Fold this protein.
Amino acid sequence: MNEAFVIALVLSTAAAATPLILAALGELVVERSGVLNLGVEGMMLAGAVSAFAVTTHTGSAAAGFAAGMGAGLALSALFALLTLGLMTNQVATGLALTLFGVGLSAFAGQPFVGQVVSAGVPRVLGLDLVAWAAIALCPLLWLFLQKTRAGLLLRAVGERPEVADAIGFAVRPIRLAAVLFGGALAGLAGAYLSLVNTPMWAEGMTAGRGWIALALVVFATWRPLRVLAGAWLFGGMTVLQLHTQALGLAIPSEFLSMLPYLATVLVLVLICRDPRTILLNQPLSLGKPYHPDR
């Protein structure tokens, strides 16, 4: 195993981990506010097809990334309207959002099936700027949650919304901002998939990455810095199947394709053996709707 192969493996792992980092960090913020959004997969697909379509027509990767974030933002706004405004069940609404995103992206992406795009995202030290931004976002988000007043308020709303409301803070606007932020990052993650990671459009191209991002939040016990480590683990499993042939290992491709999902299941099983571990940083009001009196 030469140096060039190791460098290529590290860089490809970082690229594969980027959409997981973005989607997981967005969902982490949402869940820290006490809201559970299971629609990450659907928002990623909407972001992927929107980014691909806009970049194809304009030739601008920046416009494509903006469109991807906008698509994720729009679907998260719909989710917020239903769960925060109409107080629908968060689990059922999130699942419906995923199904909606899958169907919408399949329909909207029909004219682009099989097409490729050249995004031309600038690179630094072998990694594109979006990947570097995703890595930098992990410590920045940790600082926001732990060291800023806004971050502490977000956590308070996720822990005890009735207390935050009693002392004069509006719970639903704070949760709305968190949901929109999570949707924008999920859309950006989808845009990265269709413009950088695999610069083409294919129906269902997220291939379950939205669900892995949800599992990654639990794996990280709602801590941003651990998201980075978990995403690299799962990204490495994805890349491993692509580099196995170069190593000359005779392993069935079907087994290699299931490695990321197998790793997800195994990690969650190990974590969930001790309830104290899984509940260590879980927001107390996660998934529970809050009805303010005023």
Q: What stands out?
A: The chain has one domain: 3-278.
